[in-house]
Amino acid sequence: MSRESWQPSHPITLLIPKARGGRAQCAMYLLLALCATALYLTGEPLVPTARSITSHFVALQIGVLLKGTCYLAEEIFHLQSRHHGSFRRALSACFPLRWHALMLLICGSAYVALLDGDGQPLILHLSLTSLCQLLILALGLHKPSAVEISEMSERSKQNVAHGLAWSYYIGYLKIVLPRVKKSMEEFSRANPNVLAYRETWKLHILVPLSCDVYDDLEKADSNIKYLTDLTETTLTRAGTKKRVYKHSLYTIRDEDKKLWHCAVEYATPLQSLYAMSQDECAAFSREDRLEQAKLFYRTLEEILKSSKECVGTYRLIAYEESGEAESHFLSREILWHLQQQHREEYTMYEGNQPHNPNTTLSSTELNLQISQSDLPQPLRSDGF
To answer: Which segment of 5-19, 169-183, 265-279 scores lowest on mean pLDDT?
Structure first.
């Protein structure tokens, strides 16, 4: 297989799910319109129809009230530890009072007003409604689906992956990425023939969705060889004096025996996800691990894209290993990204600003400039 024909195992757009949109809400409005139309076409009298609708609304609100009562029976034993000793806070946590109390009052009043003499007392209607709602609670039919739980967790950013991605960025990437270019420049001055392509002067972060992280990249792929370490960054952090941050430079050999050089490392939080899936106490399945790994990548990508300090200093390499054993799978994945960067004429501008040839650009903003003149012109403006 040649370098030209090699492609990643899966396009990244197929591996990483995008954030959910508003299609579910649109479907809800569509179904609401269809139900209203069907109800209108039945030609039923207005008063019985209104009575049925209000009775259903009352049943729903009573269900919310009963569920809150059941939760409150537990929360009163945790007033100090969970609600700062405030019964009012516990009450507010169990009952969304502002909206549901108003709905219960309106629907209850309308139901009583529309109730005809059907031979059954109001207390019987309320008892039957409460019985049905309590059966629903007892059977667990009120619980949200897996999709609802996933969407709520993503919107509230309470997944394990969100915490790991932010911790990785705040505690590590935000510190080291702004210094990567300088380290590369210092190494290039001392070794001018090694880092030939400025487009690859980035930290390449491996994100295996299986969370299978190798401590030694040379053992993961024999085409990857450790070369040296870049200049260390020493800082005092969280009580540790002279904490050292550094990156390793590797040589990647392609199938034509050509050598490529880049700084590459795994996203270390993936080790935590893998360890959680191996520990019974975490109750973390392999499916959960895969979902969280994808969400970790997407969250980290969003964080880094919004970080001005990290623009042009990183390359995320997410991949899913194929079922077949390939001894050089990892080196091919890295090489594909290196070759893509080398072939790109322009780097991405922050905010997708249009290219202006007359503007003075630094080497981090533009990798190749095209002359507008017929006379020979230097392709690069950074002196390399």
So the answer is: 5-19
Please name the helix (run of DSSP H) or strand (run of DSSP E) that holds residue 188, with its range, or none: helix 180-190
**CA–CA distance, 269 with 293 (Å, rounded to integer):** 9
pLDDT at residue number 189: 85
User: CA torsion, points 337, 340, 346, 347, in degrees to nearest 10?
Assistant: -10
Name the phi and psi angles at 98, rounded to 5: -60, -45
Q: Is 316 helix (H, G, I), strand (E, B) or coil?
A: strand
> Tokens 């996203």 belong to which residue?
267
| pLDDT tens, position by position, 168-200 | 999 999 999 999 888 888 888 888 777 767 888
Q: Across residues 200-217, what is the average pLDDT?
A: 91
Looking at residue 162, its amino acid is H
Name the residue among 255, 301, 266, 333 with its Cα closest to residue 9: 333
Facing residues of 135 across strands? none
CA pair distance 176, 244, nearest whole angstrom = 10
In terms of Cβ atoms closer than 10 Å to its own Cβ (0-12, 13-18, 19+), residue 262 is buried
Task: Look at residue 210 and give its three-state secondary structure.
Answer: coil
User: Which residue, 268, 267, 224, 265, is CA-closest to 248?
Assistant: 265
